[in-house]
Amino acid sequence: MAHALLETMLRERGVDDGVRVRSAGVGNIARDGMLASLDARLVLREAGVHLEEDSITSTDLRRHRYLMTEAAIILTMTESQKIAVKGLAEADGRPIFTLREFAGGGGDIEDPVLQGEAKYRACRDEIRACLDQSIGRLLAMLT
């Protein structure tokens, strides 16, 4: 959801051509080609983001570490993900934040998987609020 919401915000600001957003996982269940869940697509659609089933797929970051060498910034949803990414040599020297941290707060945004639409909706809203709070900072880092 963060990937789709950030791409939408960048497009709305006319800067999507110069920025590439990637969704990647570092956990044990991360794998290449994972599709956005139906619940994620439904709650994104409610927010005006129409995400086709296969328009965004995930990447196993442990298998594609070179992606970190291309990153201007790495944002994670949880502190444990941030720690895992920091442990990969390719992330060395890259700014790495949790999304809430980057937005000026703290704590994790937990994965709502298998918890129903209400949890997905709350997660979407939390991600969107963090992105709203930090989009100016992000754009300043990228330009």
> What is the CATH C-level name?
Alpha Beta
Distance from N terminus to C terminus (CA atoms, Å) equals 24 Å
Query: For this entry, what is the oligomeric state of its chains?
Result: single chain
Fill in the CATH topology. Answer: Rossmann fold
Protein structure class: mainly alpha
Helix content, binned percent: 40-55%
Strand arrangement, major sheet: 1-2
CA-based shape: globular
- Succession of helices and strands: HEHEHEHEHH
DSSP, total strands: 4
Tell me what you see in this structure.
The structure is a single chain. By secondary structure, the protein is mainly alpha-helical. The chain has a single domain (2-142), classed as Rossmann fold, CATH 3.40.50. It has six helices and four strands. It has helices at 2-12, 38-46, 66-69, 79-86, 99-102, 117-142, and strands spanning 24-25, 59-60, 74-76, 96-98. The strands form two sheets. A two-stranded parallel sheet has the order 1-2. Strands 3-4 form a two-stranded parallel ribbon. Strand 3, helix 4 and strand 4 (96-98) form a beta-alpha-beta unit. Helix 2 crosses helix 6 (117-142). The longest helix is centred in the C-terminal third of the chain and has 26 residues, at 117-142. The radius of gyration is 14 Å and the shape is globular. The mean pLDDT is 89.
Features:
single chain, 143 residues, mainly alpha, two-stranded parallel sheet, 7% strand
Give me the secondary-structure topology.
Layout: H1 2-12, E1 24-25, H2 38-46, E2 59-60, H3 66-69, E3 74-76, H4 79-86, E4 96-98, H5 99-102, H6 117-142
Helix pairs in contact: 1-6, 2-6
